């Protein structure tokens, strides 16, 4: 039995614990900023695209995303890059090894982090298989912040994420696969497309 002299303190603690539940369960607190990945043009710079053959419900079932696309972009040098972009309020669904779903059954053992640009600094996660015939590059963005370590970021933002409006995370993911007897893949092709896609998305009003 709890002494009555502690009842006020216990009641306050219970109310504080209920705040995130009320905010995220009973109040529609999603931050609709009006942006959509599907507003990104099908032509970006010298890249033109065609849609992939993903099922229309795939992004929802895998990434809990209502706003996503996958397209195959090709530049004037006939270099092809698969571009997948999705937004989701389920942050972990996007940042926790997206390559497991997007590059299924590929052994992307070589992992590094590079920088896409300096203003703002955009960390790019780069993954390659052993013979560099497959290169993946992706960028994570949340609340207009580019994220290098998503787990550390979510921990640092945990209290704010509990009590404030939900904001979607955006994943920009590219993948290149070399054809047989093809020369080494050019990572710059992917990072150029990433830059164009990010710029097109962020420029939306």
Explain what you see.
There is one protein chain. This protein has two domains: 1-30; 32-202, no CATH class. Strands 1, 2, 3, 4, 5, 6, 7, 8 and 9 form a nine-stranded antiparallel beta sheet that branches. The chain contains seven helices and nine strands. It is 31% helix and 30% strand. The chain has 205 residues and is an alpha+beta fold. The radius of gyration is 20 Å and the shape is globular.
Provide a short characterization of the protein structure:
It is built from 7 helices and 9 strands; from the N terminus they run αββαββααββββααβα. The chain has about 200 residues and is of the alpha+beta class.
* Beta-strand content estimate: 25-35%
Quaternary state reads: single chain
Compute the gyration radius: what is it? 20 Å
Summarize model confidence as the mean pLDDT: 86
> Structural class, from secondary structure content?
alpha+beta
Q: What shape does the CA trace take?
A: globular
Work out the helicity level.
25-40%
Main β-sheet: number of strands, strand sense, barrel status? 9 strands, antiparallel
pLDDT < 50 stretches = 13-28
Key terms:
30% strand, 2 domains, single chain, 205 residues, globular, nine-stranded antiparallel sheet, alpha+beta
């Amino acid at each position: 039995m709890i002494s009555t002299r502690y009842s006020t303190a216990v009641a306050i603690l219970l109310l504080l614990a209920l705040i995130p539940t009320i905010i995220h369960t009973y109040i529609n607190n999603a931050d609709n900023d009006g942006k959509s990945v599907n507003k990104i043009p099908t032509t970006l710079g010298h890249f033109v695209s065609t849609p992939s053959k993903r099922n229309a419900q795939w992004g929802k079932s895998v990434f809990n995303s209502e706003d996503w696309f996958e397209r195959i972009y090709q530049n004037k040098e006939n270099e092809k890059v698969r571009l997948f972009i999705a937004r989701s309020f389920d942050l972990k669904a996007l940042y926790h090894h997206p390559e497991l779903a997007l590059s299924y059954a590929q052994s992307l053992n070589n992992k590094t982090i590079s920088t896409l640009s300096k203003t703002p600094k955009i960390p790019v996660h780069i993954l390659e298989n052993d013979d560099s015939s497959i290169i993946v590059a992706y960028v994570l963005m949340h609340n207009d912040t580019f994220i290098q370590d998503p787990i550390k970021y979510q921990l640092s933002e945990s209290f704010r994420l509990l009590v404030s409006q939900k904001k979607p995370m955006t994943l920009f993911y590219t993948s290149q696969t070399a054809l047989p007897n093809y020369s080494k893949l050019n990572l710059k092709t992917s990072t150029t497309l990433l830059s164009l896609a990010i710029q097109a998305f962020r420029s939306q009003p």
